[in-house]
């Protein structure tokens, strides 16, 4: 498609292969997951904001995590859904493509930093409970959130800039449902080996760098829990961090699978499946992971629904 051009000015997203019937099934499935994701995370944000029982660092971070989840999935899923409804490939400008990639990577980086901070929060709550309110005060929590957002958006400026400084002259068809960096690098006529290596090192730095405090925190958490004499005490202590630990396993597992590899230009199907995990599955699971086994949140949710019912009834 680019035989007469030196570089692409727009791209065409190939999306999902298959028949119209398959596209309809995928559209219905992803639309349902996206709707539940947005409504579930909005519900978490609202309840955390209005219920005084949830005014603690853990729920403060959870609220911001839900905001990030909504934004991450909204960066690509609506466009993906629109592509499933349209016949053929979907055009996207170079500017829109770079903006989508930048937002996707920046929000993802901010989420990883926040997840690491949440692990440290659980460590302080379980291993140093007497000083918890002093260490994790409101000032500290606000600064943690600000740093996570600012760091994420600053850290990804160069990787996205370097990606779009390449010359895309092989084709302008991206074998993906979003502007995936690995597939974009495949379209470049330049020698991108050095760029790929730097991007790999940066991915290792942010993912492993945020994973290290998580591992250290949970090592101390498990050690502290095992020292609790009663089984009921152990269960109660573990329940306060089980949701975050589950989310960490899913989140970091997917990111390691997708980004921590020296060769960024992996097979399209590999990237497509991993991206679906990051953009669709993980944000969908977030409301359930953090609420279903949380008695305090369930109680707050019931009271919130009762108040809504009373308002509608009156």
In short:
The chain is mostly helical. The chain has 11 helices and 3 strands; from the N terminus they run βααβααααβααααα.
Could you walk me through the main structural features you see in this protein, from its secondary elements to its overall organization?
It is found in: Cell membrane. This is Olfactory receptor. The chain crosses the membrane at residues 25-50, 59-81, 101-120, 141-161, 197-221, 242-260, 272-292. Belongs to the G-protein coupled receptor 1 family. This protein has 314 residues and is mainly alpha-helical. The protein has a single domain, classed as Rhodopsin 7-helix transmembrane proteins (Rhopdopsin 7-helix transmembrane proteins). The protein is built from eleven helices and three strands, in the order βααβααααβααααα. A three-stranded mixed β-sheet has the order 2-1-3. The termini are far apart. Residues 1-6 have low confidence and may be disordered.
